[in-house]
């Protein structure tokens, strides 16, 4: 919103961002009020995101599966919990290669003689 008034902010995180917004907001009361409302909303959302991250970390620490998944480089608590929740019961899958297509990450390929095509994956029954 500030860009419309020629204000381009330097990169910053949390308190730095808030301080920059407050310093560079035009003094017009209407604009100042709108920016104030947006900042208040941004603070609330930021707090909710931090609380969600902490909750996911607690869940991941309590799960053996999630802790094992997080030993893979680049796998955070969020990814580990999401993957564990999506797969739920790994015994539903006949092969580990069936999990990618089930999640929509990779198609499953069928090749036989002259036939060579990708299949959409059906949800396995329990």
TrEMBL record:
One matching Pfam family: Transposase_20
PANTHER family: PUTATIVE TRANSPOSASE FOR IS117-RELATED, TRANSPOSASE FOR INSERTION SEQUENCE ELEMENT IS1111A
The organism of origin for this protein: Paraburkholderia piptadeniae
InterPro entries attached to this UniProt entry: Transpos_IS110 (IPR047650), Transposase_20 (IPR003346)
Single GO molecular function: transposase activity
Protein name, entry field: Transposase
Domain Transposase IS116/IS110/IS902 C-terminal: 66-116
GO BP annotations listed: DNA transposition
